[in-house]
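TASK: fixed-backbone design
INPUT:
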């Protein structure tokens, strides 16, 4: 059967067509710069590859462009939309009400709408993509896979902030965590690579890209994570500051006369690696500049890796026994330099890196720890689209089984 996975951003829509349960990618198709004059379409299929300008005034139009491309130019991967059995959607925030991947109904849509206040940049475009797909595919099964769901197992002592309890009860102020689909996928894959049952495996998973987060995973369940009420908290990121003194908001307002929105934009869009380095948010460019003697680039690199190291130590304490540390996402998968710096000095914790293995592991699965390391260190390329396809297939199978039982 064929499953379409949709990841809808603020100005882009990416669709991946899978053959399931074989987990085979039939085609990747994306429209970027939706609503702008220079919108662009790309398609990568088993027998075709193309890139060209397109007209996409909104997400619904962009989805139409993607589907028409798969039908007409997809190299035969899709003869009719009827071949698509179900559609899986990457959704960011499900709040406390949704802790697993679910078939979409009016209640699920209501939950996504209720949590727009907690994810104003992500839930609205996710919702637009979902509604466009529901309109285009009629009664086909739609499945929502939430970034926050994996972190639904975090205990209260880890997700509560020490602020008046009423803020949690009345306004949902707590740590939620994000990147859950990625953390869940790489944790499962790492357990397989270590020949361990996931239920017996303790891991620290490090999603290091333009957005960064860490998770402590005990027996396949998230018990702590670095992102909080919003994706701003935690590790240093491409343009986000990560952990700061909350009083910085008031300091900037009083000393510089900045408005709340200006402070928000500063911490989310002009901070992190870009703000520290002055080079930008691309780790490759920052490392190159640091090697050339750029002091600010070296500072940004040092702060980034130090923060990762600090979270590794904290989560090692949370887990007690640690079986593996997993690096994933753009920086985690491709930067031996960042991995080396983040683990430097952790030998007393039983963490030893093999420099040669680390240097060779770029964009591929590998165990890069030394043979005498008590804790394994792994590189696992993330595949959130595949994880969404797996979940969507599972929901489809369960719904089919339930329907068969009812008919009997």
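OUTPUT:
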């Amino acid at each position: 059967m064929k499953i379409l996975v949709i990841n809808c951003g603020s100005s882009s829509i990416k669709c991946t067509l899978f053959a399931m349960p074989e987990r085979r990618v039939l085609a990747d198709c994306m429209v970027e710069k939706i609503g702008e004059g220079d919108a662009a379409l790309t398609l990568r299929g088993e027998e075709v590859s193309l890139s060209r300008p397109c007209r996409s005034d909104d997400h619904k139009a962009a989805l139409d462009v993607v589907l028409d491309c798969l039908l007409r130019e997809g190299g035969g991967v899709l003869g009719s939309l009827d071949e698509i059995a179900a559609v899986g959607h990457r959704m960011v925030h499900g709040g406390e009400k949704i802790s697993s991947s679910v078939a979409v109904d009016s209640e699920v849509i209501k939950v996504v709408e209720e949590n727009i206040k907690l994810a104003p940049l992500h839930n609205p475009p996710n919702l637009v993509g979902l509604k466009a797909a529901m309109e285009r595919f009629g009664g086909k099964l739609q499945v929502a896979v939430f970034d926050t769901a994996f972190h639904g197992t975090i205990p209260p002592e880890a997700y509560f902030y020490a602020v008046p309890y009423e803020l949690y009860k009345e306004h949902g102020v707590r740590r939620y965590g994000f990147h859950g689909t990625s953390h869940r996928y790489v944790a499962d894959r790492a357990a397989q690579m270590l020949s361990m049952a996931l239920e017996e495996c303790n891991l620290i998973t490090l999603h290091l890209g333009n957005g960064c987060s860490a998770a402590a995973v005990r027996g396949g369940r998230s018990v702590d994570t670095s992102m909080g009420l919003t994706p701003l908290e935690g590790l240093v990121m491409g343009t986000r500051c990560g952990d700061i003194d909350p009083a910085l908001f008031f300091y900037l307002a009083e000393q510089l006369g900045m408005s709340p929105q200006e402070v928000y934009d500063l911490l989310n869009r002009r901070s992190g690696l870009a703000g520290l380095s002055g080079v930008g948010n691309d780790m490759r460019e920052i490392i190159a500049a640091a090697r050339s003697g750029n002091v600010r680039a070296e500072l940004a690199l040092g702060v980034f890796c130090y923060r990762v190291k600090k979270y590794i130590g904290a989560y090692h304490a949370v887990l007690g026994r640690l079986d593996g540390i997993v690096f994933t996402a753009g920086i985690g998968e491709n930067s031996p330099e960042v991995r080396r710096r983040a683990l430097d000095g952790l030998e007393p914790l039983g963490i030893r890196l093999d420099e040669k293995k680390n240097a060779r592991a770029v964009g591929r699965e590998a165990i890069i720890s030394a043979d005498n390391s008590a804790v394994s260190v792994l590189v696992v390329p993330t595949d959130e689209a595949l994880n969404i396809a797996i979940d969507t297939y599972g929901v489809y199978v369960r719904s089919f089984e339930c329907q068969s039982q009812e008919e009997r």
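COMMENT: The first strand starts at residue 2 and ends at 8.
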